[in-house]
Write a structure and sequence with these properties.
Layout (H helix, E strand, L loop, with lengths): L1 E7 L3 E9 L5 E10 L6 H4 L4 H21 L3 E6 L1 H5 L3 H11 L4 E3 L2 H14 L8 E6 L4 E6 L6 E5 L3 H7 L8 H22 L6 E5 L1 H10 L7 H4 L3 E3 H12 L3 H4 L12 H16 L3 E5 L3 H14 L1
Parallel strand pairs: 1-4, 4-5, 6-9, 9-11
Antiparallel strand pairs: 1-2, 2-3, 6-7, 7-8, 10-11
């Protein structure tokens, strides 16, 4: 089956067209990703901005043409934190349907985590069984504890890189007080996760989405993004701490010059790094496995199952 999936996130929108074989293997045919900041300002008043909606709709128009040219068997578009939290989400969904012809499925944080797990599992190296998955998004962060023989334990929290940047990290660079407030919030949420999930011994920490893949690229000083060098890269807590020192000591303009940092992430990389470090420290992990597959791939794998039924 040739399928198309779109993930409309708070910070980034992603397109994936791929073939899913009968045994569930996914092969990429075409992909695209754009930092659009659809969730810009949503944390303040729960409203999608007209300019942000226009950016997303323009991109979806482009992707409509791409999808049509591939003659896919089925397609799906999902929206996450920014859209599900917006009071004017029906306006956005209606415009997308009218102007682009896409019906968007707004998914909960728990459903987002379930599909992210499908994506992560599809790309794990041999020998990795029990995992704690972490998906740091623009508006929310998902935790997924998945052990063989047990139902996955999922928790979604309303902390993401755009939300935290707009709420707490407003100076350039952020002040010491702003950084401390962010650290305290992250630690509080991570301690609740630790209590809820219990003993994590034996689980491999696996991070997905743009914050951790960006840090993996920065750790390797990649001048261009190379998925083969990102996927299943082992990122240590010590390396994250070192990158954090470099990032916090620079302005947004200065961060743009750092190798591996994707354009458009120069402000939110602070929040992403703080979240990743705080979660790993609180939960007791000294190393994380970086996954270059996640929700976007999980959306296609889930569609394949539904399409066959």
């Amino acid at each position: 089956m040739l399928l198309a999936g779109i993930d409309i996130g708070t910070l980034t929108c992603r397109l994936l067209i791929g073939r899913v074989s009968g045994d569930g293997r996914l092969t990429e045919v075409h992909s695209d990703r754009r930092i659009l900041r659809l969730g810009e300002g949503v944390d303040h008043d729960h409203l999608l901005r007209p300019a942000a909606m226009a950016r997303a709709i323009e991109t979806l128009r482009d992707w409509r043409t791409v999808i049509n040219s591939h003659h896919v068997d089925a397609q799906v578009a999902v929206a996450t934190s920014a859209v599900r939290n917006a009071r004017n989400r029906e306006e956005f969904l209606g415009r997308v349907m009218q102007e682009v012809g896409f019906e968007i499925e707004v998914i909960s944080g728990e459903e987002e985590a379930r599909r992210t797990l499908l994506g992560i599992r599809s790309g794990l190296p041999a020998g990795v069984s029990s995992i704690l998955g972490l998906d740091i998004g623009g508006g929310s962060t998902e935790f997924i504890l998945d052990r063989p023989g047990h139902a996955p334990v999922i928790r979604s929290i309303e902390i993401g890189v755009v939300r935290m940047t707009e709420r707490l990290l407003t100076s350039d660079p952020p002040t010491a007080d702003q950084i401390q407030s962010a650290r305290e919030l992250i630690q509080k949420e991570a301690e609740q996760i630790r209590t809820m999930f219990g003993e994590l011994g034996g689980a491999t920490f696996v991070g997905t989405a743009g914050s951790i893949t960006t840090l993996a690229a920065m750790a390797q000083k990649l001048t261009t993004y190379e998925p083969i060098r990102i996927h299943n890269y082992r990122l240590s807590l010590d390396t994250i701490r070192g990158l954090e020192r470099e990032i916090l000591g620079r302005t947004k303009a200065q961060r743009r010059e750092m190798p591996g940092l994707e354009a458009g992430r120069e402000d939110v990389v602070v929040a992403g790094t703080l979240i990743l470090r705080g979660v790993m420290e609180t939960l007791g992990f000294t190393e994380g496995l970086v996954s270059d597959v996640g929700l976007r791939e999980g959306v296609l794998l889930d569609l394949a199952v539904r399409f066959r039924q």
